[in-house]
TrEMBL record:
Function: Required for 60S ribosomal subunit biogenesis.
Protein name: Nop domain-containing protein
Positions of region (Disordered): 426-550
Organism, as annotated: Gossypium barbadense (Sea Island cotton)
Upper taxonomic lineage: Eukaryota, Viridiplantae, Streptophyta, Embryophyta, Tracheophyta
Domain Nop: from-to ranges: 280-398
Primary site of residence: nucleus
């Protein structure tokens, strides 16, 4: 029985000397406590050394995928004829058995045997020291980590950062130079600025024409459309510009050459950036485009740093000043940064830009992680997410119409109320038809209305007059009752105050002093009665005023 053991230096095959010891795991572990006892259990049969790091990395990655490499297949064919092979991976054993027709074993005894071999590896393989094995293990682990992350020279995003920076600088320089040409040549031919709007076409036209007097003889069909060419030639005849000498025209043409060369280099640089973006970040490019994707990578520093950011950070990347200003002043935070220039956000209506930018940022964060750490090299994920976002944009644009029609999801349909219609049934009563006989002439209605008002007015006045009369009668009766009660009390007091004696006659007149007292009391009572009546009259007047105001 043979045992396959992989190390950073190569593949090793060990011959099991005593297979009977494999049945007892405890005793097997004791055999590898010392180097001498370990040599009695296994011995090195063959060793295949890796030539370089690339070969070691290829073999290690194949083993991770449970498939034998080309070198391992050759090694096993040469040394495993008619032998049983113990392996550490059952899937690898199945692959070896299918391709090489070698019987493979994977069980607890084999795993314990491999564990023991690992403890005494430097003693079992002659010429392999611990100081040599450690650097090899470290180098292979780094190489393997890079392979797991799919790190390759083609995915270097430093070139993208430099290219997009240079592209922005070229745009600024081109704009500055083009405006300088327009101002400089505008003194000679000011009408050309209005006729030719494009900066590159303007520079080509100036370079070809030179003096405006040459415009009638030249053919501008390769540069300008026919209508613009005709307008240019007509304007050159009647131009109000000043004359310039040949030296000035020579310097202007040299500046035009600079603009044209820079524009050509910019086109080449854009093609280079486009190819690099499709190689490094194909999914991000499919979602937001080459320029926006490159600016996001440049702003994040690298594709890997950008992959560590959440979707909310990707959404406002490039609007940091606005964000911190909003947080400081307690205003609303920005909804988008560099991602605003993506085509999907540009297609959305102003009220939907925030929602689309948030959805696009979430999908872009997934696409960035897929590009930085994923295995796939195509842009299928980006195209699929772009289709979903376009569908969401169409849904947002159509939702407003759906809501106005009452067909939005989760909301009941609003119907016009009809009192003659019952739920789930027809009409309760027949629909009323229009009766033209009920119409009246406008003049008649006004007369009848005036008569009705005349009839109702006196009735209301009568009601108003009757009510205060009844109130006055009731008040007068109450006052008279009070007077009668007071008179009775006075009489009773007078009778009580008179002396009773049998000698005096009953019909004898009272004393004159008592008569004077009675007169005074009557006067006081009359004065108090007048005051009460005056107060009552004032109350009545106030009530009448209130009623008339109402």
């Amino acid at each position: 029985m043979l045992v396959l053991f992989e190390i950073p230096a190569g593949f090793a095959l060990f011959k099991v000397l005593d297979e009977g010891k494999l049945n007892n795991v405890v005793d097997l572990s004791k055999e590898f406590l010392a180097a001498d006892s370990a040599r009695k259990v296994v011995s090195l049969k063959a060793f295949s050394k890796f030539e370089n790091t690339a070969e070691a990395l290829e073999a290690a990655t194949k083993l991770l995928e449970s498939t034998p490499s080309k070198g391992l297949r050759k090694f096993l064919r040469a040394h495993c004829d008619g032998e049983t092979l113990g392996v550490a991976d059952s899937k690898l054993g199945n692959a070896i058995k299918e391709k090489l027709k070698i019987d493979c074993v994977h069980n607890t005894y084999v795993m314990e045997l491999l564990r023991g071999v690992r403890t005494q590896l430097t003693e079992l393989i002659s010429g392999l020291g611990a100081q040599d094995l450690a650097p090899m293990s470290l180098g292979l682990s780094h190489s393997l980590s890079r392979y797991k992350l799919k790190f390759s020279a083609d995915k270097v995003d430093t070139m993208i950062v430099q290219a997009i920076g240079l592209l922005d600088d070229l745009d600024k320089e081109l704009n500055t130079y083009a405006m300088r040409i327009r101002e400089w040549y505008g003194w000679h031919f000011p009408e050309l600025t209005r006729i030719v709007q494009d900066n590159i076409h303007y520079a080509k036209t100036v370079k070809l024409m030179g003096d405006r007097a040459n415009a009638a003889k030249l053919d501008f069909s390769e540069i300008l459309p026919e209508e613009v060419e005709t307008e240019l030639k007509e304007a050159a005849v009647i131009s109000m510009g000043t004359e310039v000498n040949d030296l000035d025209l020579m310097n202007i043409k040299e500046l035009c050459d600079q603009v044209l060369s820079l524009s050509e280099y910019r086109a080449q640089l854009y093609d280079y950036l486009k190819s690099r973006m499709n190689t490094v970040a194909p999914n991000l490019t499919a979602l937001v485009g080459e320029l926006v994707g490159a600016r996001l990578i440049a702003h994040g520093g690298s594709l890997l740093n950008l992959a560590k950011q959440p979707g909310s950070t990707v959404q406002i990347l490039g609007a940091e000043k606005a964000l911190f200003r909003a947080l400081k002043t307690k205003h609303s935070t920005p909804k988008y940064g560099l991602i605003y220039h993506a085509s999907l956000v540009g297609q959305a209506a102003p009220k939907h830009k925030g929602k689309i930018s948030r959805s696009l940022a979430a999908k872009a964060a997934l696409a960035i992680r897929c590009d930085a750490l994923g295995d796939d090299q195509d842009n299928s994920m980006g195209l699929e997410n772009r289709a979903k976002l376009e569908a969401r944009l169409r849904a947002l644009e159509g939702k407003e119409l759906g809501r106005s029609a009452g067909s939005a999801k989760g909301k009941p349909k609003i119907e016009v109320y009809d009192k003659d219609r019952k739920k789930g049934a027809g009409l309760i009563t027949p629909a009323k038809s229009y009766n033209p006989a009920a119409d009246s002439v406008r003049g008649q209605t006004t007369n009848s209305g005036a008569l009705d008002e005349q009839d109702t007015a006196p009735r209301k006045k009568k009601k108003v007059d009757v009510e205060p009369q009844e109130e006055e009668a009731a008040e007068v009766a109450a006052i008279e009752d009070k007077k009668e009660k007071k008179k009775k009390k006075k009489k009773a007091d007078q009778e009580a105050s008179l002396p009773i004696s049998g000698n005096e006659p009953e019909n004898e007149e009272p004393v004159p002093k008592e008569k004077e007292k009675k007169k005074k009391k009557k006067r006081q009572a009359e004065d108090s009665g007048e005051n009460v009546e005056g107060e009552k009259e004032e109350k009545k007047k106030k009530k009448k005023k209130k009623k008339s105001g109402d």
